[in-house]
Amino acid sequence: MDRWTGRVAVVTGASSGIGAAVVQALANAGMIVIGLARRVERVEELRQQLSKQAAQRLHAIRCDVTREEDIVAAFDQIEQQYGGVDVLINNAGIARGGINLFTPGNADPLRQVLDTNVMGVVLCSREAFQSMMRRSVDGHIVQVNSVVGHTVPAFASFNIYPASKFAVTALTESMRHELRIEGTRIKVTSISPGLVRTEAVPSELKTGQTPILEPEDIADAVLYVLGTPPRVQVHELTIRPVGEMM
To answer: Is position 224 annotated as part of the catalytic site?
Structure first.
C-alpha cells in the first residue's frame, strides 16, 4: 500500500457496512479518503473511531449515486479540492426485499436497484476514469460485487438483485477491455463476497449459526488488491464465510 500513501480514494456508499469499514481501512493505510453517501453525517462520525492523523484524512461529500448530477458535482468537487481520483471503490448497492419480478406495480423499486447497483457503478467509474486520464494516473477501480453476481440462488424475493450483480460482473470485464484498448494501466477488480453482516441483511441471518462475514473482511480484501504490484491485476476475488451454503 506504500505507493498509495497520500493519494486520493473515493468510496461510494460510505455511511455503513462495507463502505464504512473500507473508508476507515484506507484512511488508516495513509490514503486521503472521500466517502460519498446520502447520510453524510454518518461518514463524519466515523472519524471518532480513527486516530487523529487518520481522521484528518477522511472527508465526506453528500451524493446519491442514482442521480447523475450528484455524481458529476461530487467528482468536480473532489477534483477542485483534492486534485483528482486515484482509487475508486464502487461499494454503494441496495437489495429490495418483499418484492419479486412479477409483483404488480414493482417498477419503481426495481428501477431503484438497477440505478444504484448498475448505473451508479457506470457513472462513478466514468468520472473516476476521466480524472485518472487527465492526470496520467495508473489508478484502480474496485467493484464490491457479490457471489450472486455469478450464480443465481433460489430467492423468494430480492430477485432483481442477482441480475444487477451479474451486470457488475459483465461491466468489470467490459471495463478491463476498454482500459486495455485505451492503452492505460488502470486496474479494475471485482470483489464478490458471500453473506456479510450489514444493515441490508435481515436480522435473522445475523444471529445463530448462519455463516457470515464481517465488513472488515471485505476491507482487508480491498487493501490486498490495492497492494498488489503494478504488473498484477486481481480481476475477480470471491470471499465466502466458511460453511456458507449459497
So the answer is: no
Alpha helices, DSSP H, located in the chain: 17-28, 40-45, 52-56, 68-82, 107-114, 120-134, 160-181, 215-226
Residue 18 in 3-state DSSP? Answer: helix
pLDDT digit string, tens, across residues 124-151: 999 999 999 999 999 999 999 999 999 9
* Predicted local confidence at residue 157, as pLDDT: 79
| Residue 203 predicted with pLDDT over 80 | no
- CA atoms of 226 and 89, how far apart (whole Å): 10
How distant, in Å, are the alpha carbons of 102, 114, 194 from that of 90?
29, 14, 17
What DSSP designation does 196 have? B
* pTM value surpassing 0.90: yes
Do residues 124 and 12 touch, judged by C-beta distance below 8 A? yes
Nearest to 59 by CA among 68, 72, 71, 50: 50
Burial 229-245 (b: 16+ CB within 10 A, else e): eeeebbeebebebeeee
**Residues in a beta bridge with 10:** 34, 88
Distance CA 73, CA 79 (A): 10
Catalytic residue among 4, 75, 129, 161: 161
Name the pLDDT band for 54 (thresholds 50, 70, 90): very high
- Positive or negative, the CA dihedral 199, 223, 79, 185 is negative
